[in-house]
């Protein structure tokens, strides 16, 4: 584990309903693989990515259980969306760092200049990859429960 080599490491783990994230990941993987492979099977990619991400989250939970919780900060997507600067302040505080006024000013300026959707959006649907909300919630249940991640409504 990284902490064996870097015992003072700080980890920030971001959390979001993976049922909202996975279709986007599948879209990205499908696009990239399509560049090199030509014809790709989006449903096969969906099944592969679902299992890969679920297994990674389960292994991550086990790694976290074996480590000192003080090395970790859990940052939920909704907290970042609702108050990004406040989320960063809480993160800094958790690790004993101070967020300077200049850094906060620059973050606020960047946020004002770069609202969500500034460059448009990316559209995809779970069904495009053979995914279903209930099946994803079931496969990611351990992760959702362990980190108290709320399910998000489909968009």
Name the average pLDDT.
94
Note the main sheet.
2 strands, parallel
What is the strand tally?
A: 2
- The ordered H/E elements are HEHHEHHHHH
Instruction: State the separation between the terminal residues, measured CA to CA.
Output: 37 Å
Q: What share of residues is helical?
A: 55-70%
Q: State the helix count.
A: 8
Strand content: 5-15%
Label the overall shape: globular
Segments where pLDDT lies below 50 for 5+ residues?
none
Radius of gyration: 18 Å
Widest sheet, order of strands:
1-2
Q: Which class do the helix and strand fractions yield?
A: mainly alpha
Layout of helices and strands:
Blueprint: H1 2-5, E1 11-15, H2 18-37, H3 42-65, E2 72-76, H4 77-82, H5 84-94, H6 101-113, H7 133-139, H8 141-146
Helix pairs in contact: 2-3
Describe the structure.
- The chain is mainly alpha-helical.
- The protein contains 8 helices and 2 strands, in the order αβααβααααα.
- The chain has one domain (13-117, 129-146).
- It has helices at residues 2-5, 18-37, 42-65, 77-82, 84-94, 101-113, 133-139, 141-146, and strands at residues 11-15, 72-76.
Q: What's a concise summary of this model?
A:
This protein has 155 residues and is mainly α.
């Amino acid at each position: 584990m990284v902490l064996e080599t870097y015992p003072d490491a700080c980890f920030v783990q971001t959390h979001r309903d993976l049922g909202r994230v996975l279709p986007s990941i599948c879209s990205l993987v499908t696009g990239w693989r399509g560049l090199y492979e030509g014809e790709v099977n989006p449903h096969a990619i969906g099944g592969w990515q679902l299992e890969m991400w679920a297994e990674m989250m389960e292994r991550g939970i086990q790694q976290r259980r074996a480590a000192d919780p003080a090395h970790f900060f859990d940052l939920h997507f909704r907290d970042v969306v609702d108050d990004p600067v406040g989320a960063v302040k809480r993160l800094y505080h958790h690790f004993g760092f101070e967020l300077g006024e200049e850094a906060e000013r620059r973050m606020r300026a960047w946020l004002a200049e770069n609202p969500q959707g500034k460059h448009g959006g990316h559209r995809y649907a779970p069904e495009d990859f053979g995914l279903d909300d209930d099946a994803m919630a079931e496969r990611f249940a351990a992760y959702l429960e362990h980190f108290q991640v709320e399910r998000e409504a489909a968009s």
